[in-house]
Design brief:
Blueprint: E1 5-6, H1 16-24, H2 44-61, E2 67-72, H3 75-87, E3 93-98, H4 101-110, E4 115-121, E5 141-143, E6 146-147, E7 152-153, E8 165-168, E9 185-189, E10 200-205, H5 222-227, H6 237-254, H7 257-276, E11 281-282, E12 294-299, H8 305-314, E13 317-318, E14 329-332, H9 339-356
Helix pairs in contact: 1-6, 2-6, 3-4, 7-9
């Protein structure tokens, strides 16, 4: 059976070469006589896998030496609590920017542990830098660079002065180069641009590690995982291994994040041009804040939504239904979505409009 073009927002498609390599190594990883799934996380075989994955990620993102890289469980949603638990002590107050569904969830969780100042709140756009109402005494400023449901993406990194900037990069990490030194904490669930579900990557500056709110469980303390090299408990070893294969693919097959950014920008432009050049499709997001990764769009006649999805599926274009809170369609075009998939979707959209418009 031919593989489909999977436009899911997550878990998302993986590079085919990564899946093929994992298949080759499934029963016997490099002569070890066992699968990665069977390895002790403290054995020399897996330790070498873990070390290479971290080294490749550091190289790809240019992560400075004064940052720790953690490979954790719990998804990005667990970081909604871990961030305030680890960063609020001594301040008790944080700034949050609300641009969509995931921002709202992070804000709701943070309110359990301290005071939240809403620095800005927008819908289908993102606030300008001079519109941010930042607190002088905030422990940190939190934002979501890319909202997967609304398809809203910041075209800039907020300036926060000496206050640490925290970013939920689940849906945009590794899509382009970033300056990690501008952030205090970066966290990302793996299932969009890194690897399979079950792993969360956290990049945290060393000076933000150590102090926690009273009563914080050991598993929710960054220091616990830093001291144990992410091996305090049994980590999600197979997801870590697959993520390492993705990092290797980005480095050696794609040629780094500069090249990945060129591809992603080109893919997004093709899809937005198809939407904007049509009288049949529409995108609700302010053009300057449109996401490269998640492209929502509506049909002129919502009664045709089911027909669109059915016909797209027959063309091997799957998982295009928009989030239930927004409706319409959503095409998630993360790193692993080949340009061929976007071309196929654009061609189908044009044909569908011709027949139903």
């Amino acid at each position: 059976m031919a593989r489909v073009f999977n436009f899911s927002a997550g878990p998302a498609m993986l590079p085919q070469v990564v899946i093929e390599r994992a298949r080759e190594e499934m029963l016997d990883w490099q002569g070890s006589g066992m699968s990665v799934m069977e390895m002790s996380h403290r054995g020399k075989e897996f330790m070498s896998i873990a070390a290479k994955a971290e080294a490749d990620l550091r190289e790809l993102m240019g992560i400075p030496s004064n940052y720790k890289v953690l490979f954790l469980q719990g998804g990005a949603s667990s970081q909604f609590a871990m961030v305030p638990m680890n960063l609020l002590p001594g301040k008790g107050r944080a700034d949050y920017i609300n641009t969509g569904s995931w921002s709202k969830k992070a804000i709701a969780e943070a309110k359990r542990y301290g005071q939240v100042n809403l620095a800005a709140e927008t819908s289908m756009t993102c606030p300008a830098q001079d519109a941010l109402q930042l607190s002088a005494d905030a422990a940190y400023v939190h934002y979501t660079p890319n909202e997967t449901i609304q398809g809203v993406e910041f075209p800039y990194v907020p300036e926060t002065g000496d206050i640490p900037l925290v970013a939920d990069m689940s849906s945009t990490i590794l899509s382009r180069p970033i300056d990690v030194s501008r952030f205090g904490v970066i966290y990302a669930g793996a299932q969009k641009n890194i690897g399979p579900a079950g792993l969360t990557v956290v990049i945290v500056r060393e000076d933000l590690i150590g102090e926690c709110l009273e009563g914080t469980p050991s598993m929710f303390q960054y220091k616990t995982h830093v001291d144990a090299d992410s091996m305090y408990n049994t980590p999600p070893t197979y997801a870590w291994y697959l993520s390492g294969l993705v990092f290797d693919w980005l480095k050696n097959d794609i040629g780094g994040l500069d090249k990945m950014a060129e591809i992603n920008e080109r893919k997004a432009k093709k899809l937005y041009d198809a939407v904007d050049g049509s009288g049949f499709y529409a995108n609700p997001v302010e053009p300057s804040c449109r996401s490269w990764m998640n492209v929502p769009f509506t049909l002129a006649n919502a009664d045709l939504d089911a027909t669109f999805l059915e016909e797209a599926g027959k063309q091997r274009l799957t998982t295009l239904k928009g989030h239930r809170s927004v409706g319409g369609m959503r095409a998630s075009i993360y790193n692993a979505m080949p340009e061929e998939g976007v071309d196929a979707l654009v061609a189908f959209m044009a044909d569908f409009e011709k027949r139903h418009g």
